[in-house]
From TrEMBL:
Gene3D superfamilies reported for this sequence: 2.70.98.10
Protein's name according to its UniProt entry: Aldose 1-epimerase
Originating organism: Cohnella zeiphila
GO biological process assignments: carbohydrate metabolic process
GO MF entry, a single one: carbohydrate binding
CDD domains for this protein: Aldose_epim (cd01081)
Length: 328
């Protein structure tokens, strides 16, 4: 009997259940931890890693920052909310402070998600679907009283890993909507290696602080123009961050590792008009963070069409997709 191409399985690692997706023909593998924010902690193809895993899964228990420092944290809202105060439709939501003065990255990146479906077939690849509902967490609905329902499917198909997200507002009132992802791509260090980043940028860059807070309106810059041609990431500063707008075409970002002979490709759909570039000081990685809105969008004095500060209406559902693969 032939060995199936696709397989979905699970294992226990340091007290966490880890869901493993495999594509034998492409020698590709993904690992997800539903109990800690449904975090995609590993993806590789042909032995080449594309996602930075945590040093160990105990980190998620021991380090309160680890949930959004490794793997692919799921952010709602993305980045910082100044003083934890988020105004929307005449109401101010007071989010808990997990920094001295700010709310950072939301809480669904560290909470338990429930696996609702999984399987593997030639047509559907290897997949797992997990769900997070605000209404299951009374401490969260105390400050954000909306019944938001998140369903995320990771699907490994033909060597590429697709993330299919559906967010539905089950409550009777409109809720503020701001969603993002924070993948860490393991690319540093290799002495003397040229690392090229190409981004389908719209040549518009938002001026931001080192905490990614917006300080003005976007404009065309030499840096945003150069992203389309490609930049050398060795020259990008540690702890640096840049907020850009993406072009209308649905093209992929590419990180090309010249010495290692492959590239990491990452494509997002048009639900993500913004991309934050970030080089973390704590790991040899680089982040391309797709956002539906700029940082702290609801506190900015600009039109929502500019910032992405929008709502999700009663019974409305928003779908978002990303794809990640290795190019030789």
């Amino acid at each position: 009997m032939p060995i199936p191409r696709y397989e979905t399985s699970s294992k226990t690692e340091e007290g966490y259940e880890v869901v493993v997706l495999r594509d034998a023909r492409r020698d590709a593998r993904a690992e997800i931890v539903p109990a800690n924010g449904n975090n995609l902690i590993r993806f590789e193809a042909g032995g080449r890693p594309a996602i930075l895993a945590p040093p160990d899964l105990r980190s998620f228990r021991d380090d309160p920052q680890a949930s959004f420092r490794y793997g692919t944290p799921i952010l709602y809202p993305p980045n910082r909310v100044k003083n934890g105060e988020l105004p929307f439709r005449g109401r101010t939501y007071r989010l808990p402070l997990n920094e001295p003065r700010n709310h950072l990255h939301g809480e669904i990146s560290s909470r338990r998600w429930e696996v609702t479906a999984y399987g593997a077939s030639e047509d559907e690849g290897a997949y797992v679907t997990s769900r997070f509902r605000y209404e299951d967490h009374p401490d969260m609905t105390a400050y954000f009283p909306h019944e938001l329902d998140f369903a995320v499917t990771y699907r490994l198909l033909d060597g590429a890993l697709h993330m299919e997200t559906a967010i539905r507002n089950e409550s009777e009132t409109e809720a503020p909507f701001a969603f993002g992802l924070h993948p860490y791509f393991p690319i540093f260090p290799e002495d003397g290696e040229e690392i090229r980043l190409q981004v389908p940028a719209a040549a518009k860059e938002w001026p931001v602080t080192d905490e990614a807070f917006v300080t003005g309106t976007p404009g065309e810059t030499e840096f945003s123009r150069s992203l389309r041609r490609g930049i050398d990431l060795r020259e990008y500063p540690v702890s640096g961050c840049t907020m850009i707008e993406l072009a209308e075409e649905e093209a992929a970002c590419r990180i090309e590792l010249k010495k290692r002979g492959y590239a990491i490709a990452y494509r997002t759909d048009r639900q993500f008009p913004f991309l934050l570039l970030f080089r973390p000081p704590w790991a040899g990685a680089f982040s391309l963070e797709p956002y539906t809105s700029v940082t702290d969008a609801f506190n900015l004095p600009y039109a929502w069409e500019m910032t992405g500060a929008r709502g999700i209406g009663p019974k409305e559902q928003i779908r978002l997709t990303t794809s990640l693969w290795i190019e030789n």
